[in-house]
Design brief:
29% of the residues lie in helices and 22% in strands. It has 580 residues and is α/β, with parallel strands linked by helices. A hairpin with a 4-residue loop joins strand 20 and strand 21. The longest helix has 17 residues. The chain is globular, with a radius of gyration of 23 Å. The chain binds oxalic acid and manganese (II) ion. The site of oxalic acid has 7 residues, from helix 7.
């Protein structure tokens, strides 16, 4: 396979003369190609076959121990003007960034194969989909991209027809953290990433393209690229509502997207559209519609079990690439809270010793195609996407944020999203459990100045009078003894039901200074071991605590200076005066 598109061929030739690979392989996305690469990596030791009777077609990859998560401090947005990247991003001038990273790419692929991966983010026949080409020297990246995107011949065909594509250049380099950079050039629609093989840094279709570059494109073209799951909730009468939820990394997006309704909720069904990224457009009638640009899942393994996420647990029993989990005596994958078997080997390949390290890395991952998911929605392939009834923001907060509340209107909802804060997790290098501001769960992923991003969100109120309602949830509230107040997982359906009831104007709500809170009678607690008092506690809004929060949001907003949209300051002022 080569290409008829001159711009693509020229770029491939240019990269080859810079990186000096031994071979060039154009990827066609076929099963034959996938199986060949898996076999080859199995031989080279890049992958280890798991117990093929218990876990058919499942393999384990072990990363370099310094390369196990996203590296936000080494991730740059390279716009001409620093202010366009904003205080929410690391910035480098494009020329300086190219010079720095091009030095590292010189000869980087010597002795290696250079793979050319044409891919499409979104169904190939969707007008909302966008294409890219990733060049990489990592076969691990190729097989992951095969599971995560629509890649190969069909994508190339679309690229050749359209004549344009996002350029992503990746090399694992020598994995030296000092020579690791993830650079984005939004004006050029290009990405350069070197020195890491970790998913979020190396599978360039995901965070780099579908969020950082796409958010920039989306602003120009009038749509939104968001860090959101998309889920369909079917009621016993067979009607389905679609909801998009933005939660920070490793805060339960995959679990919510694949939720299994508890027995006490007969007749309800959940359909997964996506677990990480949503591209949102207004259609001609002003209805917001969503597609999932991805075609697979790169999910956090620890904590996944029959109780927390049975769909995922079953889905990763075959055709899955595991990264950085432990092993049992039977050569089955092992992770914390799997609740089956015991580990004998840890994620670094050493004999398991609980004093030394956990068996699976806290950010160990599974990569699997979405077609393996028992709850995968047929509409995930629909070119026009699905209509969105509600947008839900959320974070991991021990205190303060109630189980659920509803914004008063779209503009207030933008403030709710912009004010999100959450405890950090192992998905990125750095301290875990620190509360940080993570607006719309996009802190690591917005490819431009957050102030402009909020303006863009606000502008939707002028474009449609049928916008989704906006909500905020917190599954993680704890009591004084540090015990979670809400059971979470499948029981979260009860909260989604209230959200849909509000969208359909079926229930009233209590107005508070931060927004609308459920009347306790409207949250179904049938069969739940939850007293009315606990439910009240979950729904409490303490104005004094909120005032502190609002002051902290105010300080954060100040870092955006004059660029902060006036309408957002107005919403902020309204909230502050409601609290005082
Ligand atoms: C992810 C992340 O991998 O958000 O999805 O880090
Ligand atoms: Mn994510």
């Amino acid at each position: 396979m080569t290409t008829t598109l001159k711009a693509l061929q020229n770029w491939v030739d240019e990269v080859a003369s810079q990186t000096l690979p031994d071979n060039i392989q154009w990827c066609d996305g076929s099963e034959v190609e996938y199986n060949f690469l898996i076999k080859q990596m199995n031989k080279s030791g890049d992958l280890e076959a798991l117990n093929q009777s218990n876990y058919p077609n499942c393999y384990l990859h072990r990363s370099d121990p310094t390369d196990v998560a996203r590296v936000e401090h080494l991730t740059f947005i390279c716009t001409k003007e620093k202010e366009d990247a904003g205080p929410n991003n690391n910035w480098m001038a494009p020329m300086e960034a190219h010079n720095k990273i091009d030095q590292l790419f010189k000869g980087a692929m010597k002795g290696r194969t250079m793979y050319v991966i044409p891919y499409c983010m979104g169904p190939v026949d969707s007008p909302y989909a966008r294409c890219g080409v990733e060049i990489t020297d990592s076969a691990y990246v190729v097989v992951n991209m095969k599971l995560m995107t629509r890649m190969g011949a069909k994508a190339l065909h679309r690229i050749e027809q359209e004549g344009n594509f996002v350029k992503g250049l990746h090399s694992t380099g020598d994995l030296d953290p000092e020579k690791r950079f993830i650079m984005h050039f939004p004006d050029e629609l290009s990405i350069k990433s070197i020195g890491s093989g970790y998913g979020g840094n190396a599978l360039l279709g995901k965070k780099c393209h579908a969020l950082r570059i796409a958010s920039w494109q989306a602003r120009k073209e009038g749509w939104l690229a968001e860090h959101m799951l998309i889920v369909g909730i079917e009621n016993p009468q067979g009607e389905t509502h679609y909801v998009a939820c933005a939660f920070p990394s490793a805060c339960g997006k995959t679990n919510l997207a694949m939720l299994i309704p508890p027995k006490s909720q007969p007749g309800w069904k959940i359909w997964t559209l996506g677990d990480d990224i949503a591209w949102l457009h207004l259609d001609e009638e002003g209805q917001m519609r969503a597609i999932n640009p991805e075609a697979g899942y790169f999910g956090v393994v620890p904590g996944t079990n029959e109780k927390t996420n049975k769909n995922a647990f079953d889905m990763i029993k075959s055709d899955t690439i595991y990264t950085n989990v432990g092993l049992t005596e039977q050569n089955d994958p092992w992770w914390e809270d799997k609740n089956i078997g015991e580990p004998i080997i840890d994620w670094q390949g050493d004999k398991f010793n609980s004093d030394l390290r956990s068996a699976a890395h806290p950010n160990s991952r599974f990569t699997v195609s979405a077609v393996n998911n028992p709850s995968y929605s047929e509409l995930a392939e629909a070119p026009e996407g699905v209509p969105i009834s509600a947008i839900v923001f959320g974070g991991r907060r021990k205190k303060l944020a109630p189980l659920v509340y509803e914004a008063n209107n779209w503009k207030h909802g933008v403030l709710v999203g912009a004010g999100v804060a959450s405890e950090t997790t192992a998905a990125a290098i750095g301290e875990v459990g620190i509360v940080r501001r993570d607006p719309m769960a996009m802190k690591p992923f917005c490819g431009y100045n957050f102030a402009d991003y909020w303006s863009h969100w606000l502008s939707f109120s002028e474009k449609s009078d049928k916008l989704p309602k906006i909500f905020h949830v917190n599954w993680f509230r704890q009591n004084e003894d540090g015990k979670f107040l809400w059971p979470g997982f499948g029981e979260n359906l009860r909260v989604l039901r209230w959200i849909i009831d509000r969208c359909e104007s079926r229930v009233s709500a209590r107005s508070t200074s931060i927004g609308n809170i459920p009347n306790t009678k409207d949250i179904d607690t049938n069969d739940l071991d939850i007293s009315k008092d606990v439910l009240e506690e979950l729904l409490t809004v303490e104005n004094k605590e909120w005032l502190q929060e609002v002051n902290s949001i105010g300080e954060y907003f100040e870092t955006f200076g004059d660029r902060l949209p006036k309408e957002l300051s107005n919403e902020f002022d309204k909230l502050k005066s409601a609290l005082t």
